[in-house]
Design a protein that fits this description.
Growth Hormone, Chain: A; 2 domains; globular
Length: about 400
C-alpha cells in the first residue's frame, strides 16, 4: 500500500514525551540534518573522483539543498495526513540507500541524482519536530522543542568538521558510508522507540497541498514569524558563506583550521532550550526583540574593531548563532500553537520561508565580499536584523496587537 493511500484511522491517545524520548529525537534530528552538509567542505575531493569539473562541483551542494526544499513543500505536508512513523521510516530508508549509493558510485550524473535524493530524504527531520510537538504537553512544548532543535543545530554545525576529518584520514567515500550506517542504526531506533501517530486530518493529498496557500494567507502569526526567521537565516548564511573566504584570504587559515573555527557556532545551540522556556513562560515578544538586537549587534566587533581579528569573527559567529537559534525556536513554539491538525503544513511553510532566506544569503555572500570585503558583509549583516527589529517593535501585527 502506498504511503499516499493509507487508510484514515481514529487518532489514538499519544504517550507523553519523556526525557529519554526527547534525547532520542534530538540525536536523530541532528544526525539526519547532518546529511545535507557533509559534502560542502569536501566537494573538491569528490568532484574529480566522480568525473565532475571544478565548476560543476557546486551542483552537489545546490542539488542537495534543492531536494530538501522540494521535500519541504511536497513531503512534509503529508505528516498531517499519513501515519508519521511510517513517513519518517520511508524517508530515512531512502537516506540510508542514497548515502550508500553516493559512497559507491563513480558516475557524475548518478552522484548528482543521489545528492538530490539525500536532500529529499533528509526532510525526515521536519516530520520529527512537529511529531515531538504533538507528544509534548502544552505547558512544556517550547522547552522540549527547543531541546530537540539544539540537537538539530549541533548536527548541522558538527557535520562539516566531521566530514573533513573523516575524508582526511579515510577518504571522502568513508564519510557517506559512515552516514549510511548511522541511518540504518536510526531506523532500528525508530522501529523500537518512536510512537505511532495517525493524524485526524481527512483530505486528499491534492487538497492538502492546495491548503498551504490558505494557511499562509489566514495566519498572520505564521507570516510574521516566517519573515523574521527568513531574515535572520539570510544573515546566518551570509556570515557562514563569507567567513571561510575571509579566514583563508586575510588570516591564512588552513582548511582544517577553518573547520575548527566552525565549531564555535555549536555554542549557539544552548539558545534553543532557553528560548523554549521563555516561550512557555509567555515571554515570546521580549525574547524576540532580544534575539533581533543581538543579531544586529553581533557584527559590531568586526565592523569597528579590526584588531579583534579572528576572535572578533568568532564572537560574531557565536552571538549570531545564538540569536538565530533562539528566534527559530520562538517561532516554532508560536506556530505550533496555532492549529494542531495543521502542524505539519505550518512547519513546511515556516521552514520553506527560512530556506529561501538562507539561499538568498548564500547566493549573494561571495559577490558582496568580492565587491566590498568584510566591511560590506558586516554592514549588511547588521542592517537586516536591525530593520527586522524596528519592524517587529513598531509595525508588525504583533506590535499592533500589543503582544
Amino acid at each position: 500500500m502506498s504511503i499516499l493511500s493509507l487508510p484514515a484511522s481514529a487518532e489514538r491517545p499519544l504517550p507523553t514525551m519523556t526525557r529519554g524520548l526527547a534525547f532520542l529525537f534530538a540525536f536523530c534530528t541532528g544526525a539526519i540534518a547532518a546529511n545535507i552538509y557533509y559534502a560542502q567542505p569536501i566537494i573538491r575531493l569528490i568532484a574529480p573522483d566522480v568525473g565532475l569539473s571544478e565548476g560543476a562541483a557546486s551542483l552537489i551542494v545546490s542539488l542537495t539543498q534543492i531536494g530538501y526544499a522540494l521535500a519541504m513543500l511536497f513531503l512534509v505536508p503529508l505528516s498531517d495526513l499519513v501515519e508519521n512513523r511510517r513517513l519518517i521510516f520511508f524517508a530515512t530508508s531512502l537516506a540510508a540507500a542514497s548515502l550508500l549509493g553516493a559512497a559507491l558510485t563513480s558516475h557524475p550524473a548518478a552522484f548528482l541524482l543521489l545528492s538530490l535524493l539525500i536532500g529529499i530524504s533528509s526532510v525526515a527531520v521536519q516530520v520529527l519536530i512537529p511529531l515531538a510537538a504533538h507528544l509534548a504537553p502544552d505547558e512544556s512544548r517550547g522547552r522540549l522543542v527547543g531541546g530537540i532543535m539544539s540537537g538539530l543545530l549541533l548536527g548541522i554545525l558538527l557535520s562539516r568538521p566531521l566530514s573533513s576529518f573523516v575524508a582526511d584520514h579515510f577518504g571522502w567515500r568513508a564519510t557517506f558510508a559512515g552516514a549510511s550506517a548511522l541511518m540504518l542504526g536510526i531506523l532500528v531506533l525508530f522501529a523500537t522507540a518512536v510512537p505511532r501517530y495517525q493524524p485526524a486530518h481527512r483530505s486528499t493529498y491534492r487538497q492538502l497541498l492546495l491548503s498551504l496557500e490558505q494557511l499562509f494567507r489566514r495566519m498572520p502569526v505564521l507570516r510574521e514569524r516566517a519573515a523574521l526567521q527568513a531574515t535572520l537565516f539570510a544573515v546566518f548564511s551570509l556570515f557562514w558563506t563569507a567567513v571561510p573566504i575571509e579566514l583563508s584570504r586575510h588570516y591564512d587559515l588552513s582548511q582544517s583550521q577553518i573547520g575548527l573555527f566552525a565549531l564555535v557556532g555549536a555554542l549557539g545551540a544552548v539558545a534553543a532550550p532557553l528560548a523554549g522556556r521563555l516561550a512557555d513562560a509567555g515571554r515570546t515578544r521580549g525574547a524576540t526583540l532580544a534575539a533581533l538586537a543581538l543579531a544586529a549587534s553581533s557584527f559590531l566587533p568586526t565592523m569597528f574593531g579590526s584588531g579583534f581579528g579572528v576572535i572578533g569573527l568568532a564572537f560574531t559567529g557565536v552571538a549570531l548563532d545564538f540569536a538565530v537559534q533562539m528566534n527559530l525556536v520562538l517561532g516554532q513554539r508560536a506556530i505550533y500553537g496555532l492549529e494542531a491538525a495543521s502542524r505539519g503544513r505550518l512547519n513546511a511553510l515556516y521552514m520553506t520561508s527560512i530556506f529561501i532566506g538562507g539561499a538568498v544569503g548564500s547566493a549573494v555572500a561571495s559577490e558582496i565580499h568580492a565587491l566590498g570585503g568584510w566591511l560590506a558583509i558586516a554592514a549588511l549583516g547588521a542592517t537586516l536584523p536591525l530593520a527586522a527589529l524596528i519592524w517587529f517593535a513598531f509595525l508588525s501585527p504583533a506590535a499592533r496587537r500589543g503582544d
